[in-house]
Amino acid sequence: MDLFDSNSSERASLPRNMIENSMFEEEPDVVDLAKDSTAFPTFPALDPDEVTYEPRSSRLLVRGLGENDMDDDEEDCESSARLLGMSFMNRSSAHRSNSSPYTRQAPPRSCSRPSSRTIVVCVLFLVIVASVTMVFYFLPGCTFTKAGCRKPNKTNPMEPVYPISTNGDLFPWAQLRLPQSIKPLSYDLTLNPDLDKMTFTGRTVINMSILHSTNRIVFHGANINITKATFKLGDGQASDVTVLEYKPRQQLAVNFSEELKAGQYCVLTMEYSANFSNAYDGFYNSSYIDEDGNKRVLAATQFEPLSARKAFPCFDEPAFKATFLIKISRKKTYMTLSNMPKAKSTNLSNGLVQDEFEKTSINMSTYLVAFIVADFTPNTKNVSETQVSVYSVPEKNGHTEYALTITSKLLEFYNNFFDINYPLKKLDLVAIPDFLAGAMENWGLITFRETTLLVGKKSSLLEKQVVASVIAHELAHQWFGNLVTMRWWNDLWLNEGFATYMEYMSLQEVSPDLETGNLFLSVRFRALDKDALNSSHAVSTDVNTTEQVEEMFDSVSYEKGASILLMLNASFPGDQQFRKGIIEYLKQFSGLNTDTDDLWNSLTQVLSTHHMNVSQMMTSWTSQKGFPLVTVNLMGNQVTLTQEHFLLTSDNTTHTSSLWNIPVTYVNDSCSLAPECRQVFTLKNKSDTFKLSKNVTWLKLNYKNTGFYIVDYGKDGWSVLTQALISNVGVLTHEDRASLIHNIFALSRLGRVPFRQVLNLLKYVSADTETSPVTEALLQLNNIYRQLEKRQESNLASRMKNFIMIKFRNLMANQTWEEEENVSKQELRSALLEMACSLNDENCIQQATSLFKKYMQSNGSLRIPGDLQQTVFTVAGQSDETWDALFNIYAHATYDSEKRKMLKGLASTQNPQRLVQILLSGLSGSLIQTQELPLVISTMCQSFAGCLFAWDFIQENWDRLIEKFPIGSFAIQTIIKSVTFQSSTQVQAFFSGLKERGSQMRSVQEALETIKLNQRWMDRNLPTLRRWL
């Protein structure tokens, strides 16, 4: 019986992995290759752009023929057998496990001796078979063309391997990335969605230019049924063509008997039908319940990174930019939106209306195309000759005012900062009820979750900070990503790193009251934590599979990308040099695609008079994973700096000899707070020495943590800094104090600093009242507490809880439960009270319970302060009585930010039946939207009991999860990272069995590493914790 069946009751009190430990294996597939054999196909001629080849030994992949991998000889033998139509069901038992259920019994040895004639015939037959086998063994060295057999490549004996399309014909392309023979110039798209049947039909006309001669056109399409296709070359007549499909790579192709010549123009027209996507990508359906209780249906798009192909056939890679003319039919009760303003509407004979949008005024990548069919209402104003509108469902239109106001300010700021005006006539921001990502930067039609766009008039500044940050990020993309686009997904950071950096920088200028500095500092710390793992990757790295494309959307591309830009800006001479370099980059490559070197070259040009080679400096930060550990040794006025790779590894991984070009900033005891105190030394070598102008007592490196590196001061250096903070907490900026706390915990995980040294630094923390150092200390101590709890070290966990409460009791007691206007104080209060209540502090629990009861009795008219809502709702989720009340409020709530906090409170319960109820509801999308499942699972995994249920749920429902969330996507990454409480054996056993369903994900390796590192740290430090606590 499935534990997560809604009818399950007897076993719901304990998760399956605590009830039964037996493991079951599926029987392997048995493949009869004889049924899959084909006639010998003629390989098509290669285009000049076809440069990637596969080894001959990769021609045949057979699943289910045994546990052992085939060696080259075996595989070639089996390839030959396949070509001869032979079945390989009878593989030698020597290659099978002795216990295999497929091992055949040897026949009785009772054969009579064969005659001479039989022997001769058998030998002759074997010679013939061997000869034919050898012919086909060596055959792949030659690809037949009209010109005959090409001269073999003796230096690289590879062959192109073409897959088989769905109709059995040879598919003319064998690579993930498309050939460069054809360039799309424009698309004419006509879409006819049917929101009653959840289907749509379409017509796509692609105008193309032939860049070099070819006899094929290869492009993308997924889950669409092409019913008719025609092709026209130049001014010739259109003729029907056959469209081939290769589903594993979501590619389509058209073959031509005569070569298409370079310089010609052509048109491919396709008619097709499809179902709406049942996930959150492509052209998908969504719904919401209106104020009268009626279900309203709508359709929206999410194409980044690889899903435009699910809505229309296209060249779905960032470098294939084109213009788009879009027409969409609809019922009269609906409205439509797309990237451009509406040009006209036409009444159709079937009673529908067709909306036609203006042709895009500039070329753009397919992943930025967007369209929506819904009944939304706008809030609009004109800003700098651009019509800005914020759309929502009608009931929530009153929550759009803040988004409209902050968007207007940011648009004017970016127009000025980039010295390039936003290029389109309109800018729409749309809140979608069902939306997986936080937001999507579609050019002219930015889509959002409701929680990241809509805020009420009484919302706290902390809630507005969330909305403003997301809007600032997406608006920055209109220049970084839309106007100038990375050439391929390996350089995604050029989009996301820049947008993340500009998000924080712009709001510090436009809305300083939101105090985004603390938030930016925190995300830089978390980026360091991830990049310290061996499973991390370079900022710019190879991307060769669709899963790898999805996995590029992570903290390395976003937060590390932003962090190295901050470091670069801080190292530039003057305030405006970095901005000048950005403007140069945007203007030089406007409308084009770039790679990382293009950015560095633009910045180097601007700084040529300063003799600063940005490319030489920054390549070390983007081309290799990880970051440096800088060790400092201070002797009087002489400073010695040494760098090495900061690598947390749970095995015997060899540490790299990587070097970084590091702009090391530092302050000292005589001048440590003001920006003018900061000095810079560039560390390019493994070790280097410089002298100060005078003797100093201490140095603090990485001023305000603007550099992406960690610092070890040595035993004496840490002691001196600790004493300085104990004597005067204000001797360093709050960023520098937070940096010391983060760095020393990281060094403890590395094993470079004993944990007692960490405890010594924490002696000063009781005197600190600033948000960033206090919240960083709380986070680090809470991590240790949770690890002790999950390790079932209950006695030590209890002592750790007492230590945290003693260390922060005074600060916790000083927090009020009324409205607080200052963002930084809201952040501090939220962190302190969430911690106090999670550790079952009696006063905190009492205050939160009282506030929730008042909230219930007021029927929602009483508003809980935004920064306290999570604490109050989490406490309410711990009691059966208040859980039921909270669930009822959640079911009828309309304010999305508040509703999400309620969901986290519900998911924090320890009641097994309710945990199962939430998970099942999220999976079905009934009362809890499926888009919230990653949030639910990560919240559950903050407690030991919740983790067990979540892990069991993930294993039971993995296939359903990856139907909703693409393999490698951020949602799947979040789910995987949540299970790091488990043993590495359990996690590895489960994910390794998934094969193509997720076994190779980087996030799996990250989870395994984290588990082992946590275990190693605990093993090493438990004695110290026992003595100390």
From TrEMBL:
<dbReference type="GO" id="GO:0005737">
    <property type="term" value="C:cytoplasm"/>
</dbReference>
<keyword id="KW-0378">Hydrolase</keyword>
<comment type="similarity">
    <text>Belongs to the peptidase M1 family.</text>
</comment>
<dbReference type="GO" id="GO:0070006">
    <property type="term" value="F:metalloaminopeptidase activity"/>
</dbReference>
<feature type="binding site">
    <location>
        <position position="496"/>
    </location>
    <ligand>
        <name>Zn(2+)</name>
    </ligand>
</feature>
<dbReference type="GO" id="GO:0043171">
    <property type="term" value="P:peptide catabolic process"/>
</dbReference>
<dbReference type="InterPro" id="IPR050344">
    <property type="entry name" value="Peptidase_M1_aminopeptidases"/>
</dbReference>
<keyword id="KW-0325">Glycoprotein</keyword>
<dbReference type="InterPro" id="IPR045357">
    <property type="entry name" value="Aminopeptidase_N-like_N"/>
</dbReference>
<feature type="transmembrane region" description="Helical">
    <location>
        <begin position="119"/>
        <end position="139"/>
    </location>
</feature>
<keyword id="KW-0472">Membrane</keyword>
<keyword id="KW-0735">Signal-anchor</keyword>
<dbReference type="GO" id="GO:0005886">
    <property type="term" value="C:plasma membrane"/>
</dbReference>
<dbReference type="Pfam" id="PF11838">
    <property type="entry name" value="ERAP1_C"/>
</dbReference>
<keyword id="KW-0862">Zinc</keyword>
<feature type="domain" description="Aminopeptidase N-like N-terminal">
    <location>
        <begin position="183"/>
        <end position="368"/>
    </location>
</feature>
<feature type="compositionally biased region" description="Polar residues">
    <location>
        <begin position="92"/>
        <end position="103"/>
    </location>
</feature>
<feature type="binding site">
    <location>
        <position position="477"/>
    </location>
    <ligand>
        <name>Zn(2+)</name>
    </ligand>
</feature>
<feature type="active site" description="Proton acceptor">
    <location>
        <position position="474"/>
    </location>
</feature>
<dbReference type="GO" id="GO:0008270">
    <property type="term" value="F:zinc ion binding"/>
</dbReference>
<keyword id="KW-0812">Transmembrane</keyword>
<feature type="site" description="Transition state stabilizer">
    <location>
        <position position="558"/>
    </location>
</feature>
<dbReference type="InterPro" id="IPR027268">
    <property type="entry name" value="Peptidase_M4/M1_CTD_sf"/>
</dbReference>
<keyword id="KW-1133">Transmembrane helix</keyword>
<dbReference type="InterPro" id="IPR034016">
    <property type="entry name" value="M1_APN-typ"/>
</dbReference>
<feature type="region of interest" description="Disordered">
    <location>
        <begin position="1"/>
        <end position="21"/>
    </location>
</feature>
<keyword id="KW-0479">Metal-binding</keyword>
<dbReference type="GO" id="GO:0008217">
    <property type="term" value="P:regulation of blood pressure"/>
</dbReference>
<dbReference type="InterPro" id="IPR001930">
    <property type="entry name" value="Peptidase_M1"/>
</dbReference>
<dbReference type="GO" id="GO:0012505">
    <property type="term" value="C:endomembrane system"/>
</dbReference>
<dbReference type="Pfam" id="PF01433">
    <property type="entry name" value="Peptidase_M1"/>
</dbReference>
<feature type="region of interest" description="Disordered">
    <location>
        <begin position="92"/>
        <end position="114"/>
    </location>
</feature>
<dbReference type="InterPro" id="IPR024571">
    <property type="entry name" value="ERAP1-like_C_dom"/>
</dbReference>
<keyword id="KW-0031">Aminopeptidase</keyword>
<protein>
    <submittedName>
        <fullName>Leucyl/cystinyl aminopeptidase</fullName>
    </submittedName>
</protein>
<dbReference type="GO" id="GO:0042277">
    <property type="term" value="F:peptide binding"/>
</dbReference>
<feature type="domain" description="Peptidase M1 membrane alanine aminopeptidase">
    <location>
        <begin position="402"/>
        <end position="621"/>
    </location>
</feature>
<feature type="binding site">
    <location>
        <position position="473"/>
    </location>
    <ligand>
        <name>Zn(2+)</name>
    </ligand>
</feature>
<dbReference type="GO" id="GO:0005615">
    <property type="term" value="C:extracellular space"/>
</dbReference>
<keyword id="KW-0645">Protease</keyword>
<dbReference type="Pfam" id="PF17900">
    <property type="entry name" value="Peptidase_M1_N"/>
</dbReference>
<dbReference type="InterPro" id="IPR042097">
    <property type="entry name" value="Aminopeptidase_N-like_N_sf"/>
</dbReference>
